[in-house]
Every structure is written in C-alpha cells, then in structure tokens.
Amino acid sequence: MRPLQKHLDPQTLTKLNRLQLRVAKALDGYVAGRHRSPQKGFSVEFAEHREYSPGDDLRHIDWRVFGRTEKYYVKRFEDETNLVLHLLLDFSSSMQFRGAESKQSKQQFAQRLAVVLAWLAIEQRDAVSLGVFTEELDAWSGIGNSWGHLDKAVQMMDQTQSQPKTSIGKSLHSFSNRIRKKGLVIVLSDFLVEIPDAMDGLNRLVHAGHDVVAMQVLDASESTFPFRRTTLFRGVESKQQVIAEPIALRKAYLNAFQEFQHQLQMQCRKSHIEFHQWDSSQAVDQAVASFLLPRMFA
Q1: Looking at the domain that runs over 3-15+82-218+270-296, which CATH code has it been given?
Q2: How many other CB atoms are found less than 10 A from the CB of residue 243?
Q3: How far is Cα 160 from Cα 168, in angstroms, rounded to an integer?
Q4: Closest CA to 43 of 95, 9, 81, 73
Q5: Residues near 121 by beta carbon (within 8 Å), at least 6 away in sequence
Q6: What is the pLDDT of residues 27-82, one digit of tens each?
Q7: 23, 88, 174, 280 from 155: Cα distances, Å
Q8: Nearest partner of 83 among 36, 43, 116, judged by Cα
Q9: For the chain, which has fewer Cβ within 10 Å, the N-terminal or C-terminal residue?
Q10: β 137-140/127-133 pair status
C-alpha cells in the first residue's frame, strides 16, 4: 500500500472532490482566478479548460465552449497553478492523547486532515509542502506538485517520531526562514502551550506575508472534562502525576480552559490569523468542508 493510501478514505474524497483550496487574502505572486493577487492582469499563456466553480471570475468563462456543451468552463492559464500549501503538524506528546471515548488520537486526526488537504492541492495542480515539528522543525518535505512528491512527504510524516515537548515559536521561525514564496500555511496543533510562544511563531508567518491558518485539534475530554471518579492524571509532556477528585476540579478547569481558548482566539483575530477548532472524533470531510466553503464563496 502506498503511504498516501493509508490516510485517504475514498468516500471522504468523493464528498470533497468539488471543493477547492483558495487563499483568503491577496498575496504577491498569485494570479487572478482561483488564487487572488494584488497585481492586476492575467497570464496570456492559455493551458486548458477547467470546470467552473462558484467564486471564479465570470470574465474567464469560455462562452464558445458553453455554446457547444451548455456547461460552464473557465480558461485555465499556466500561471494559475502557483498556490503553495504548507502543512505543519505538531508531533509533540500531547498530540498523541486519546480520551477513553475517542477512536483516534489528536495526532491521527491531524495527519488525516493534512493528507486530505494536500490531496486536494495536488488534485488542482498546486504545490504542497509538509512539515513536522516538536521543539524544532524536525522534518520537512520540500515543495512539490506531483503525486510522487506527496507520497514521499506522507512517508516522511509517518516515519517521524513524536517528541515529549514542543516549541511552536522556534519551529515556525525555522520554517519561515526556509520559505521565500508566500503561500497558504496551515498549522495543526492542540496549541496547549504558552500563548505568547504560539503567537510568536504564527506572527512570524503573518509578517512574512503568508495566509496563515491555525487549526487546533482537541480531544472531546479536554474541552468537556467528563471525569467523575477519582482519577490519576498523568502529564503528557512531563512525568508529573496527580490523583484528584475531578468533580471538585471540574468548574475551575473549565473556567481556565475557556479563558485560555478565548485568549488564543482573540490573539489570532488580532493578528488576522484564521482560527479553527476541531474535535478529533469529528469526520475529516466535515472539517475540510467547514474550512474550504467560506473561502470558495468569499
């Protein structure tokens, strides 16, 4: 089995095959059409036709083709395939957490989500890079736009080992230093770190001109604290252990958690970073559609 196939469900791909990745803000170097550019004009090198999708510029519909087929097609140009999607995954120990009622860990959900997004990018002939980070950028695939490149990137991801701790700030700074061309950068993490550290890394990408998306992956038990009996809590990124009566802690925990979430989301909004929170038990196709549909119709 190819590395890519391990993470892809044909039914999921069928549900998503009409969705497209789009940048949400104008980036230098991107052309009109699917990926907006601050520069006016359109490439004159015609390549092929592609089926019209909601949000496409009506000026580029080929009306002669419509007259023959009664279907809408948009003229596709060589320079239209220059979106670069960068996917950065947190592989720290906390991402391996899986609650008693969960079928998969946060890391497994993040991997599947990343692979589906990468598949969509390659399917629409854009380019992809995949990176894995903990306390630093541990592995990076480089940029490519072929199925072979994606297979190797997924294999690299599968072979990378989880590490105890994470530094989002340091890792994203390291990644930013490698990338020159502006693109869509999606960071998948539980973001259960000090907020200044997370924002330091995310803001570095924003200041470099990227379209930045923070995708927070949580287990349901982290946001609901369903524990009722005396429980042994173990640190996922430390060796600390605490036996506690959860009913007595529940209110204080939920208040602290909700305040943390509020501050994280507020800081992202302030920095013009798109923020999403996913439950690791959620269907991947639902998460992808929730992310892409607003961009397609923006």
Answers
A1: 3.40.50.410
A2: 8
A3: 17
A4: 81
A5: 21, 83, 85, 127, 128, 145
A6: 654 443 455 444 433 444 444 566 766 656 676 777 777 777 777 777 654 444 46
A7: 27, 15, 22, 22
A8: 36
A9: N
A10: antiparallel
240 burial level (CB within 10 Å; 0-12, 13-18, 19+) = exposed
pLDDT in tens, 138-177: 999 999 989 999 999 999 999 999 888 899 999 999 999 9
The whole-angstrom separation of Cα 254 and Cα 260 is: 10
Where are the chain's structural domains? Answer: 3-15+82-218+270-296, 31-81
3-state secondary structure of 243: strand
Radius of gyration of the chain (CA): 21
**With left for phi above 0 and alpha for psi between -120 and 50, is residue 280 left, alpha or beta?**
alpha
- Chain position carrying tokens 């013009």: 272
pTM: 0.80
